[in-house]
Known about the structure:
Layout: H1 2-28, H2 31-41, H3 46-75, H4 77-101, H5 105-130, E1 134-135, H6 138-162, H7 170-195, H8 214-244, H9 250-262, H10 264-275, H11 279-308, H12 318-334, E2 339-340, H13 342-362
Antiparallel strand pairs: 1-2
Helix pairs in contact: 2-3, 2-8, 3-4, 3-8, 3-10, 4-5, 4-8, 4-10, 4-11, 5-9, 5-10, 5-11, 5-12, 5-13, 6-7, 6-11, 6-12, 7-11, 8-9, 9-13, 10-11, 12-13
Amino acid sequence: MRVASGSRLGARRRLGWRAVTRRLLFASLGLAPVVIVLGYLSDLPETADFVLSAIALIPLAWLIGEATEHAAEHTGARIGGFLNATFGNAPELIIALLAVNKNLPEVVRGSLTGSVVSNLLLVLGLSLFFGRDGYVDRRSSFVSLGLVIFATTLFLVPAIPSWHGDHERHSLAVASVPISIVLLVVYVVVTMLALRGERPEPVDGEDTRTGWSLRRALLALGLATVATAFVAEILVGSIEVFAHKVGLSDFFVAAVIVAIVGNAAEHGGAVIVAHRGKIRLAAEIALSSSAQVAVFVIPAVALLSWIVTPALPLSFRQVEIGALFGSVAVAALVLAQGRSSRGRGAVLVGAYAVVVAAFAIAGDR
Length: 365
């Protein structure tokens, strides 16, 4: 009886802390419009813009994770992960195009490759570490990893010639066009096949369909994504100045800091979902996001850059290509048995630390 009573007391305490946390996060959502107004209408120092916008992204990330989880109750884990990746990557696409228009190609390429790597290693690693031991969708996981490998292999076509001579020359931008078209076609085909036949099902075997309606969840996702886009733009606009004050290279800023900030939505959302025990959905979010950046966001930015100009060549550096191939290899080894555990999560996070060190050593081109 004492054991049962203690178990019930512990459960009540956990529910109490969760309720308090939810109230605090809901209340802190009001910071986003304040940051947007201050960022666009006032003349705050870049450091203040950076700190405020970074804090404002935390509740937005939680809201996207919360809405995705409720949407997954109606659609299933696979479509839930796809929805989170789609809404989470929308701000990143906007940020990349703004950076292209400002003639910052190295920042764009670094942030995009850094996004793929951070999702494969950091986000997935933290999800496995903070989640409960369980199983992931092995087939779906390796489809996502295969897409990243396929995209990285195609990136070699414009990347290798860029390692000698002018890496921004127009011929490399032209060579990037057919590659981008192929990747977008593959993305559409694979997405249609993956979503075909997906039926609503409880996530991770739990019948928890007692939350938001699908319409409410999608509305929250949309509003949070728009707010994230504005807040992330303010942060990116100030992050370069902020980082240079501590002696970081532009490439490191783009590949690590901007990449993490641009993906703050799915980073926080995946970890929160994993902490709640829904590890399959969390892994789907991280892997779907990495694949979507590789086969959708990167080629979309390359093609749309011809409109905003100057055209962006996919002339990735050796360290970026190596990081992409290495990240897929490590993730594949960790997920080979389709199981999740804290140890596996620690391995992925450790691998990400190695990549961060390599980016720091590489410096600017």
